[in-house]
Amino acid sequence: MKFCIFVVSLILAISISGCAVLFSPVATPFSPNNRTVNFKNGVPYYIPYGVKYVLVTDEVLTGLNEYGYDGCNVGDVFWAKTANYDRAIEIIKQGEITQQQEKEAMDILLTQGEFGCSSPMSQAELNYVMQQQQIRAQISQQQAIQNQMAIQNSANSMQQRNMQMQQNMQNFQYTPPTNYAEQTFQKMQQHNQMQQLKQLNRNLEGINDYLRYGY
After folding, report:
1. pTM
2. Over the stretch 109-146, which tens digit does the pLDDT of each residue have?
3. Which of 152, 162, 174, 182 is the most buried (most CB within 10 A)?
């Protein structure tokens, strides 16, 4: 049962060691390549979003090697997808577990592409990653400002069209129709202008609501 003890200790160690940022800035499916800098005992590691992790000790390394995974070194952090960890911990919580349950828990924890190890970052690596994150943040901020300006410009343009149509309606000179066909045409013209004005007003209200409330 030595390996079983390792399984329990590993999963519980992950539970108390901490977790990386659980939520990515943008809601996306889990990807081991979508990473952020996280510190463990003051040491920086480049860890995926949405994982829980543990510092690799001699005991943890031995257990992982016995299970067939040799991608870690002492001093690394071993990480696993949070959802997989949560499923594995439910098995461990059942109390004394069988070898089959032990294997099931580890199979879940070590799902292909959803676990791994990260080595400590060098100062140069840390500086590079932090610089890239700052650049991406600045680009996102600039794009947000540009989008806001585009929406505001659209609102201003629609406002001007609205005012122009209202002015046209006020300046509309009514000429008594000379026949039924002309009378019908003028009514249709007035109706179309009113419909366009109403649609512009609805669009303008929608844009104003978005600018004011964000929806």
Report:
1. 0.58
2. 888 899 999 999 999 999 998 888 888 788 878 888 88
3. 162
Q: Could you tell me which of 64, 77, 29 has the C-alpha nearest to residue 49?
A: 29
CB 210 within 8 Å of CB 154: no
d(CA 91, CA 99): 12
Nearest to 106 by CA among 68, 161, 58: 68
Q: What are 79-111's pLDDT values in tens digits?
A: 999 888 888 888 877 767 777 888 888 888 888
Contacts 24+ apart (CB under 8 A), 187-193: 193/165, 193/168, 193/169
How many angstroms separate the CA atoms of 62 and 188, rounded? 85
Question: What distance in Å separates the CA atoms of residue 29 and residue 83, rounded to the nearest whole number?
Answer: 12
Structure-token pair, residue 91: 């098995």
CB 200 within 8 A of CB 162: yes
Say which amino acid occupies 75: G
> What gap in Å lies between CA 106 and CA 78, rounded to an integer?
13
